Q: What sequence folds into this?
């Protein structure tokens, strides 16, 4: 167990920025905590069986474990049946239809566009988020305007559409807003914006 915990700490030190800003970098903590707590729970249960052989003590202990399981299932279920998630999926399907399921898109999405590509049946490249730009600054990279970034990193792929799915993130990048204002708008909804890049 010491090796697992040591590896987790080293992982956090080596990838400290991602570790602090991306929650899925903590996923390996789940089996580590499970393996660490398993023997402790077994000791407690054995101790209760020997010192408190009465049925009600065992029922209480198992009830606590069952309550933890039920609560975790309830949390997972609430996320699966969330109407906002259903609306997001519908919006991503609409986006896919509006861009004709293009394979040449750029998207600004809080999750780097992975669900958008899946539900919208499209593909492309993810535009950096605000914290990606902050990471570049902290790493000492030269600051670039949205237009410079587009020309140097994206233009070679001849993208057809720019999809803004994260409108809050879009507001945090005024330089990008100014750059995209030069292009015609394909769609402007409450959940997304689409700009046509090859039809200026």
A:
């Amino acid at each position: 167990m010491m090796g697992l915990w040591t590896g987790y700490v080293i992982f956090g030190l080596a990838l400290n920025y991602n570790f602090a800003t991306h929650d899925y970098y903590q996923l390996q903590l789940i089996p580590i905590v499970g393996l660490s707590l398993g023997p402790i729970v077994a000791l407690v249960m054995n101790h209760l069986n020997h010192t408190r052989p009465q049925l009600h003590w065992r029922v209480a202990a198992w009830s606590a474990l069952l309550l933890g399981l039920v609560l975790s299932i309830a949390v997972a279920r609430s996320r699966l049946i969330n109407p906002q998630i259903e609306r997001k999926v519908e919006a991503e399907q609409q986006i896919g239809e509006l861009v004709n399921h293009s394979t040449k898109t750029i998207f600004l999405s809080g999750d780097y566009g992975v669900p958008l590509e899946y539900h919208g049946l499209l593909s492309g490249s993810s535009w950096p988020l605000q914290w990606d730009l902050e990471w570049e600054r902290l790493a000492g990279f030269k600051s670039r305007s949205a237009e410079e970034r587009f020309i140097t990193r994206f233009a070679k792929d001849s993208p057809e559409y720019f999809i803004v799915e994260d409108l809050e993130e879009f507001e945090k990048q005024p330089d990008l807003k100014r750059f995209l204002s030069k292009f015609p708008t394909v769609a402007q909804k409450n959940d997304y914006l689409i700009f046509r890049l090859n039809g200026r």
Summary: The two ends are 59 Å apart (CA to CA). Strands lie at 105-108, 124-126, 161-164, 185-188, 193-196.
